[in-house]
Every structure is written in C-alpha cells, then in structure tokens.
Amino acid sequence: SSIKIFTCVVVAFLFCLLNCSKISYKFTWLHTRVNALKIIRGRFQEKGSHIPEATPKYSETNTIIGEASTWGKGAYKAFNGRIFSFDSSCAYTFCRHCVESGEDFNIEIKRNNNSDIEKIIVKIDTNDVSIFGDIILVNEESVQIPYNNKLIHIKKYGEHNVLNSRRGIMSLMWDKNNKLSLTLHKKYPTCGLCGNFNSTPGDDINEHIANSKIPGDCPKAVSKSYDVCEDGVQHCEKIIGTYFEKCRKVTTLSNDYRMICIDEYCQNRDKNSTCDTYTELSRLCASDGPGPYVSWRDDSDVVCEKPRCPEKHIYKECGPSNPATCSNVAPFQDSECVSGCTCPEGYLLDDIEEKGRCVLKAKCPCESNGKIYQSGEVRDGPCGSQCTCQEAKWSCTEALCPGRCKVEGSSITTFDGVKYNHPGNCHFLAIHDKDWSVSVELRPCPNGQSGTCLNSVTLLLNSSVSVDKYIFNRDGTVTNDKIRNQGYYYSDQMQIFKASSSYLQVETNFHVKMQIQIVPVMQLYVSMPPNQFTDTVGLCGSYNNRAEDDFMSSQNILEKTSQAFADSWEMMPCPKGNPTSCISIEKERYAEKHCGILLDSSGPFASCHPIVNPKLYHEECKKYTCTCDNSEDCLCTILGNYVKACAEKETYIVEWRTGLCDHSCPSGLVFKYNVKACNSSCRSLSERDRSCDVEDVPVDGCTCPDGMYHNNEENCVPKSQCDCYLNDEVIQPGKLIHIDDNKCVCRDGILLCQTPIDLTLQNCSGGTEFVDCRDPKAQRRVDSTCSTRNIPSFDENLPCKRGCYCPIGMVRNSKGNCVFPEDCPCSFGGQEYDQGSVTSVGCNKCTCIKGSWSCTHNECQTTCHIYGEGHVRTFDGKSYSFDGLCQYSFLEDYCGRENGTFRLLTESVPCCENGLTCSRKIIVAFQDQNVVLHDGKVTAAKTTESKECEINGNTYSVHTVGLYLILKFLNGITIIWDKNTRVSVILDPHWNGKVCGLCGNNNGDLKDDFTTRYSSVAAGALEFGNSWKTSQECSDTVAQAFPCDSNPYCKAWAVRKCEIIRDSTFRDCHSKVDPNAYYDACIEEACACDMEGKYLGFCTAVAMYAEACSAVGVCVRWRKPELCPVYCDYYNAPGECSWHYEPCGTVTAKTCKDQVIGQKFSALLEGCYAKCPDSAPYLDENTMKCVSLSECSCFYNDIIPAGGVIQDNCGRTCYCIAGELECSGESLHFILIELGKTRYGVWDPFRSSTEKGVGT
User: Fold this and answer.
1) Which DSSP state fits 1226?
2) What is the overall mean pLDDT for the chain?
3) Interatomic CA distance for residues 943 and 938, integer angstroms
4) 3-class SS shares of the chain: helix, strand, coil, % to 5
5) Prediction pTM value
6) pLDDT in tens, 408-449
7) For residues 592-620, b (16+ Cβ closer than 10 Å) or e, as one string?
8) Smallest Cα–Cα separation from 1195: which of 628, 1184, 1186, 749?
C-alpha cells in the first residue's frame, strides 16, 4: 500500500510539474544500468540551436542515427528494431530517402533463388553504384577497391566492403553474398524494408514487404512463420546467451535473434545453418571492442569454420579496422574492431611490394619515385646524400644542397625559398658578405613592356689589398679593366665564360656560382655552397635554412612585407617602380591562350608536374606575357623559368621549344637543351678548360655542332682552323711566332714550339694583379643616407664627381639634414621611429638604438592554417594547395614511429553534387579520447578502456570567442576553428622540430616542409599529401581540380570580388601583411560563384587576411550587410542588447569557467561578443547567456543547470554549484515515470538503505 501511496504522490507531483509555470525543471530518467545519469534540465534554460556551441559533448566519433541490416537467407532488421524474414528473388527497395524529389540516397536489393544477395544498387549524390558479388560498377564503369571520388569512398573493411558517403550521410557495409548493413549518420525520413524510426514496420509485416517491392513481374512474398524445435532452442540459447547477449547492440533484441537462429536450425536440422546469424551478432558486438564473443567459433557446439587466411595471416573476430602497414606503422583507428584476416603481432602488412603479405618491420621495403627498394638497400638522395631503407622508412645522410637565389624580373626568390615580387626602379643590394657582394639594377622594362626588368648585375670582391668590381650588362658584355676577352676570363679569384649563346657562367674561388641569362631577357641565378655563408643579407636573404628571417632589413629588423623589406635595400634614393599591367586586350588573350601549355597533362611539361607545381608559373606566365610588346619572348622566358626550376630538381625537359619558342641560331651554330661548355672552345685545346670544373644547373642555347670549336671571334670552326692562346694573347692558326728565340706555330689549336714552353697563364696571386694602366689617384665621394649607411658602396674606384656631400663621418637623414649615423631614426614597415622607440615583431620587442634596431631573440609560437579547398600554410611559411579525398594527418608527433602523444586529423566534407569542400572534420586524438570538431560543434569520445571514472577534461578547455571556437590543450597546442573549413593550429616553442604532417615539420626550413611519413622529402604537394593519409584503404589523389579549373567563367567575377583585399579597405595593413598570397587564395575560393550564398569560401579567405592584419595591430571592419554579414542581434533575447559584433575582439566578460575578467587569448578574433550587465556579470559558455554566479551551469556529458544533480561514472552524486560540480561518495536512486512521450526521473526514497549507505 505504501508503494501505491507513493505512486499517487509522484503522479500528482508530475501533474503539477507539467502545468505550473513556477516550476522550471523537467526531469529525465536516470537509468541504473547506464554509467552516467542524464541531467535534470531547466525548461527555460534549453539552448536554442543558434547559440554557439562552447562545450564538448561525449559521443561516438561518427554519430549513429540508426542501423538496418539483412543477413543469412532473408532475415532483416529495420531501424525501429523490428526483425522479420521472408524468401523472394524479386527486387526490393532496401532503404531510400522518402521524399517526392531530390532524394539523397536510394538502395535496392535483389536475392537469387538460393536467397543469396545477387545485386545491390545504390544511388547517392549523383553516383550510381551497382554491386554484383566481387564486381563493383560506379556510373557504369568497373572500379577496383579502394575507390573514391569527391562524394563517395569504397574500401575494404575487415572481411567486408564498405561504401561511405563523404558528406557524412551514411555507411553501407556488405560481403559477397548474404550480408548488407546500412548505418545512417543523419536523420532522414526513410522507407523500404528498413522502415522508419517510428512505427514502420508495424504488426502487418506482409504489407510492409509488399510496399517495399519494386513493381514488376514477380510473385508476392510473405513473411516466414518460424519453426521451433527443442534442439534448436538449446543450441541457440547456449551460444547467444554465452557469447552475444550482453553486447550493447544485441541485448534489447536478443529474443528476436534467438527466434531467427532457432528457425534456421530447425528448418535444416543443421548447426551450420546458424552461422550467418552468429556472424551478424559478432559484427554487432564488435562496436563494444573485445569481449566474450571473440571466442564463439571455438565453442565445441559451433561448427562454423573460421575463414581461411593467406600465408602468415591469422583470423581475428576483433582485429584492427586500420591495420599497421609498412607505409604507416602506427595508423589511427577510426572505428571499432572488425572481423577478418590480419597479421600476427610483431608483423606489418606489406602495402608496397608484395601487397597483402605479412612481414617483420625490419624486412619492410621502401618506395621512392615509383621504384621499390628492399630493406638495407641504398639509393642516391639529393645533393650527394645517401638514403638507406631501414625499418619501413628512409634514413638519409645530410643533403648538402646549394642555396639558389633567383632574380627573374620583379620576381625574386631567396636562398631559403621565399618568393616575392618587387617592382623596383633602383640599384639594390642583393647579397652582402664581408668579403663579397652582389647588387642588381632593376629598372622599368624597355621596348614597350610594362613592369620591371633586370638591367645589370654587379659583383664586388673585397680583399685587404683592393676592391675588384665586375659589371654584367644586359647585352652580355662584362665591364672590368682586366677583361680583354668578353667570352672568357680567368684569375685566381674567379672565372667567367659563356655557357651558351644565352648564358654567362661565373664561379668564384669561394665556390659561389652565378648564371646570368642574357637572351631573351636578363635574369640572375646565384648558387651558394651550404653551411658556408649563413649570415648574408640583402634581397636574397641568408642561406641558413630558416625562411622566417629572410625579410631582415638593412635596419636589422624583421619586416612583415616584401615591399618594406626590399625598399630597405635600395642603395640610393630612388623613385618607386611601377607594377606590371597588361598593355592590351590582344596581349591578354595571347597570354591566356598560350600559357595553358604549362598545365597540359599531355604537354611537354607534364613530366615535371609532380615535381614542381605548374599553377604558380601559369599565373605568372599570364601576368608577365601580357605586359610585353613582344609577347612570344616573354612567354618563352616564363616557360624557360619553369624548365630551370625542374632542372634544379634534376628533372630535365627537352623539346619544349618546338613550335612555340623555336630558337633560331646564327649560321654554323646548333641549338641544344643541355649545353656543355666544357672542352668546346679552341682555348680548351691550348690549355686546361677550367669551365669543366663548374657544375651548375644545365642551360640551353646555341653552341657549336659536335666536332667543332668556338674560336676567339665566337665562330664555329674545325680543329684545324682553331686559334691558339698564350697568356691571353690570340695566335691565328698556322702563324709562326718567336718567343725568346724559340720558334712556335699554331696548329689544331695547340702551339707547337721547337722547345716546349709553359702555356699556363701568368695568373695574379697573393693580392697582386696584372694591369697595363695606372689606377686613378682621386676617389669618388659617396653621399650616404640614414637608410643606405649600412649598405656597402660599389663605387670606390670611380673618379670624383661634383656635388654636395655631407662631411666625412656624417649621413643625410630623410629631411635632407646631415646627422651623425648614431642619431639616425630607425625605419620599419615604411615608417620612421625615433631613438628609444619600441615596436613588436611577433613575440619579440625591438628597440631603436643609434639608428638601428636591437631585438630580443625569444622563440615564438608558430601557426599553421588550412582553409577552403585545401589551402595550407605550414608552420615554416610554405603555402600550397592539397584537397585530397581521404582523411589525413594534419599534425602529429608520431612521425613514422610507433609511439607518439597526439594526432590532429583532417578530412574535407563536400556539401553538394559537385563535391565542393564546404566544411572540414577535425579529430584530435590524444590520451584516451578523440575530440571531434564537426557540424559546428565539439564532441568527445573515449577510445580505450580506462580505470578513470570520467574522460579527463582537464587536459584541454573549450571557449567561444566571436565566430570561433578555441581549444587550448595543456601540452602547448591551441586550435582555432571557424566551424566550417578553416582550422588554425598554434604551437608553443617547445614543439619546434618535433612534429610532422600536412603542416610540415616546424623547423624553420622551407625546403624540407614536404617531408613524408617515410622521412623522404617529396617533390610536390600531391606526393606529400598522399603520404599523410591515415589509411591505405583510400586511393591516392592523382590530380586536383580547384574551383577556378572547374568554373573558368567565374574567374573575372572572382578577381573583382577579391580586389577588396588589395584595395583601400585594407590599405593600412598592406605595409604590414603582404596581401598577395591571400588574394590568390581568395580567387580560387571565389571561383565557386555559382554557389554564392551557400559556400563561404570567399568570406573565409577575406576573413583570413583580416585576422592576419589584426595580429599585427591593424583592425579592419570589412563586413557589410551585403558582404559576408554577421548578425549578432540574432543571439539577443527579445528586449536584450547584450550581443554585439566586434571585428577584433576577445572575451571581456567574466565567465563561469574562469570567473575572472577578460579571458586571455593570443589572437584577436572577429565575431559576436557579450557585454554582460552588472546584474548578470558572468558569461555562461554552456548556454552563451549572461547570468549571476549562482545561475552558472555545469557540464558533464551534457549541460547541467545550476542546482542540478547527476550521478557520474563512478556512481558519485554530483551537484552543480556556481558553475562547478561538487561530488560526494553518496549515490542517489531514481525511478522512471513516463507520461505520454516524456520520461521523468524522480528520487526514490524507498530504495534500500543498504546500497552505498544511502538512508531512507
């Protein structure tokens, strides 16, 4: 009777609960079998879907909405849990998206007369997939597993195959003949045999079967009536009860599975007939991880044979879904275990040579450029290095590669690989070392061409005795008093010779080499030996493998933009240069038409596409070619630059000039793609040819035919007509001369004498030189300025020139006044700073002292970004695009080893039929959990069994800051996510050189950023990106198509839209953050113009530049109601005005989590920010509302309102008090009351007091 009384009280209480507005909480059932109790949630505090998600929810990595399946000879399980069986060889709708038009998926199934699955047809996202046993057709074309395109991915999954929607809609798993399982990851109205999530199928199974049948001449089927026999009951009860019943996915339907099992047994009186059902139960149990079910095949009452495995493989009921392979020794496990054949412990799956074989790690082969090497084999690496295949990856000796600086018109590439443009009109210091310097003269291009051209190059050699200057002019001549023969010069300091008709080659005695292109335009390539000149300064930067310091100015401060950096190296006051522009529509059309040959996959440059990305050269080609009056010369110049870039990577392209860039040679000369100057001149017959000692990148041009030699007049002659050389004197062939009473004659290029003489040059050595004129007595005075005082003068040996000069020891400042050098101001970012001024560069402070900057040298945080269609900027500053179709390791510290502490994985998620990337799924795997960033929210899931009662949430925190979520991890990693495609990762300095993945290795060196998982350096983005996929069951990306490739008609529109980055909107930022890389990425994103309004690529690209400006102190309010608007008022409740938009904000309110004013973040981020009133001063990041401290909610598996009570995973009772959970050792007990469709949990005071010490 007491129970009846209590029940009445409870019902009365709940009636009041549902009808009285003063009571604000509804209760959710706390089930004693579940580890963590559901929370008691306040009605008025239910969070609207528009509120930014700030706190992680704990769930599956891939959300499972429902699962429907079929197995055996016609057993089916619907989404609502109903299990039924029928026999039919007709075609049925297994499951489809039940709408009149625009369905996302449709799956049909047909069994044969033996009730085995004969055919499966899947329509999903414009893909038609037909499955006939081992044969798979996609859009009527046969494909091999693994297969993937923009929208689907098909792979092996243990002993099954699986088709995944890359949009995250569904997964479909099947085997050869009798099993099919559909898992939905999003909620859909469905129909077919799978039913829906409510009442279908209901009691009338026959009607449900008939409604799912595809019309046609086929008899009607009815559901089976199940046989029962005592032997079958005993057998199925024992096996299911012992091995499967306790599995999470089986327990509630165990009686239905028994019914199927008993029927199978009794119909055939054969234990073997039950194998399909046991296999299906084992598959369901795998989601729980290892358990009793793994040994079901070993039971003496089971006659189901284990599948046979290849040599050395073993069959496991619960093996890894992503097995360890030679190319990935520690793969990420993205799902539960699977049944199938796997390698024994200690072995790896060979996925390189004998694919599918199990080998010891020490026996794993390696791969490089398509060639397979056995363990222990050695291959030649770049620049004389040796690489050995060891334990599944390459171990290479140091590659001593020369640094190469390029000046190609206004385009300059530093020794460390930073490329920038500078439209100069001045002499610039390109390279400066204490013993030598190189300057370049950039001037407006002649002959009707717009933009900047290289006009001359000057090499200055400093010694304790004299200064030696060599000027290389654009017509190919060299100016120096010592040079008599323009085609060849040699001294103990350097040698100069013509490598071909188009190139001059220079090498100094300290092994610096210069290639100077003369035809069709002047270009400069300087090579420096490694580890020798690491402190050079100038336009070429320093060759120290640290790209981040390449923009060090002449004022000793790291500039942010190439413009300010290059201006600091002007050697005299100069006017500003003019940027390039197309000179006519006709030239623009010519460029558009002919530059495309660079991208032609069957063209002459295709062999180099995987090595050097042609897209950058294609864009440069179009810009440069249309600036020229002689478009063909400019076109061929850029094509030649691409060829040289390939040659630097030891990939040589020939026959590319045919038709378009034919090179006509003067009479007697022939064109060659790889000209060898060595032993090709008449001089080489008279003396040792020192050009043979010079090894540099091969060049093309006109040269003599084989068997002919260049004479002193640059004509090709046979050996018999060669002139001879003696101490730079030229002796004509056949001429008889007297040398100290010695008779000599010139024959076949050799001077034959009665008495042989020493034919070596009278070389100057020891600082002396051979000259035939007096040095001028007068010296030229140089009027230095504050900005050029640190730059060496190249004019010491010129005569005096009249003019006004500052007194010796003084320089001219920007106002024209003479001051002492230590009184000069400092310059940075195009502005002047007085003595004592302090500015910030990254995390360092710089102080202006005596006209020069003195900076601290702190190690700073580094940042890597990915956004849009796979635009990546690595920690070291390398920008590239890679948008593969798999899941990739964005960042990790495993780096080819078995052990590591974290992984950050990325996968692009398409949003429509054309496969455009509209969001990105990020998984952070660390310790015993996966934190998933997807669909605008953060979720977390346990990955291993742990003795801890709860997931350790103290290792990271989640904060909503404007439009972004920030995850801060205690190990020094911060993630900024815009809930769409953009993810930024910020690393503390202690991670320098300790990470790898698509973000590079964070060691400051641009050149090795493409280090693969197997420790080799990839030549291009495709090879690099493919190496970091997390599973070999996803095929390599072989070609990439970006929006501008797919939608060329959008290009002009995109250029106009993205001009906002370069126009007056961001004017104040241009001198601090170079807009060009952001502008180029914006164009690629905006080319999805037919998706405007749905696709946020353009807005994301502009927001990236705005954020970069904010980071250097320039805040730009660029959004407008018609341009990427953000409506913060949406977050305000009626009558409230707490939320406002800030273009560069941070959390300034006190938060329930931290209870201090102003959460400190390194980044200022745009978005909606709350200004909480004094009456509710705390921002509750769970509900994104302003509250008082007593109203702060808590979080444990879900939001817990203030005053709420839960039971944690340890069974403790926890109360939410002022935003913090207070837990005790006591346990509450609840009973379930269900009214209508709502369940309520109520504390049970009659529960036995003997349990856990709780009194009644």
Assistant:
1) -
2) 82
3) 16
4) 20, 30, 50
5) 0.72
6) 989 999 999 899 989 889 999 999 998 899 999 999 888 778
7) eebbebbbeeeebbeebbbbbbbbbbbeb
8) 1184
